[in-house]
Amino acid sequence: MSDKQGMLIVVSGFSGVGKGTVVQLVFESLPNIQFSISCTTRKPRSGEENGVNYFFLSEEEFEQKIANDEFVEYTKTFTNYYGTLKSEIDKPLKQGVDVLLELNVVGARRIKEMYPDSVTVFITPPSIAALKARLIGRGSETQDSIERRLREIENESKDIEKYDYCVTNNIARTCADEIVNIIRSEHLKVSRQNLKNLFNE
């Protein structure tokens, strides 16, 4: 058991901003970080795997976990549930392992309330026009769903100022490197280091 608490990192961003790609690049640079896999009732997208990208659950399974108090946070966006299991966070943090969560603004707000020492990062696009083009480029969005997501983006933008950091995803590698630097800098804070052990040896 490590005597050093792991750090909780929360990454958010507008739908279509490229969070998944950026987060994957962060893990390539910091392989010791553990990804907290969220639960969702939405259908898997092409290339997504159960237990890797998300735990894909039926609505009944999700609601049973709510009843069992298994979530540290959960929310319903559009027609789908999203939630973070307590087991995916608390155990690795106690073992000194850093945990990264990819959450929407509602989930991030709840995590920050429950884990005040968590580090929150919001990813923005270079422009709303670039984001709209990316959403259209997915090929899985109808015009109605794009308009709905753009309205959601307007609402989410009001929460950006509550985050600790904000980075722009113009080039995914550069964006990921900025997040890696944030994580490394946070570990250098005196409040996160067990300096008393240095003098007890």
Write a structural description:
With 201 residues, the chain is α/β, with parallel strands linked by helices. The protein has eight helices and nine strands. Helices cover 40% and strands 19% of the residues. Strand 5 (71-77) and strand 6 form a beta hairpin. Helix 1 (19-29) crosses helix 7. The model has no long low-confidence stretch (mean pLDDT 89).
Primary descriptors:
single chain, 201 residues, alpha/beta, 4-stranded mixed β-sheet, 8 helices, 9 strands, 40% helix
Short description:
With 201 residues, the chain is of the alpha/beta class.
Count of β-strands: 9
Poorly predicted spans: none
User: Strand order across the biggest sheet?
Assistant: 2-7-1-8-9
N- to C-terminal separation?
19 Å
